[in-house]
Here is the input.
Amino acid sequence: MAKEKKKYDPLSKEQFRLSRSSIDKFIKCPRCFYLELRWGIRSIKTYPYNLNIAVDELLKKEFDFYRREKKPHPLMLQFGVKAIPFSHPDFLTWRDNISEGVGSLHAETNFYVWGMMDDLWVNEKGELYLVDYKATSNDSEMKSMNPASMDGYSRQLEVYQWIFRKKGFQVSDTAYWVNANGDKKKERFDNTLTFRMTVISHEGNDDWVEGTLEQIKECLDSEVVPESNKYCDTCRYVREVGEREG
Here is the structure.
């Protein structure tokens, strides 16, 4: 089973498990990040997107079929990706949400950076492509992959690129999103939801990761709660409630 998230202790010499999503939380709002990891005060949770989870699981089964066959998925052929799904003895562990996931140690901060990726593809040169599945419903594929959270999507792939490089794998700068865009223009539902499938490339750059880890270390070692991001919905809610309550 995955270990529960622990509070950060500046005096501890043990490795601290820092999730990929926690790194993104730090970038979005250092205050919310600090309150959660130092004080154990978690942000308000949102409901899970169960339809997205279903699409994710079905795509994994689909790509696993071609992984066993050592052949490219038809989507890879359709969009000109010269690769096949990557096989490795630890692959299922790396993406399993009830296991340890995949991670690497950043010795300078003693952070074990980890997460659970969706897929890996490998090209003829032995280079790995990091792959993430997305399920959306918009009028166009470009719009569906350009929401306000697009930077977060990019960082997600780049953290995994950094992790696998630290693990000694040859990793391409190119990564991919497999995008399932729900079609809302059908006349009837008929117990069937139709998706338009696309594969979208991203040229990743993980140069920011180690500098960010050092900033996180400095933040967590401090006894001073950082300022909030003025665009943080959680902080704005708390602030406005406090103003009205006097």
Notes: The chain has a mean pLDDT of 90. The longest strand covers residues 128-136.
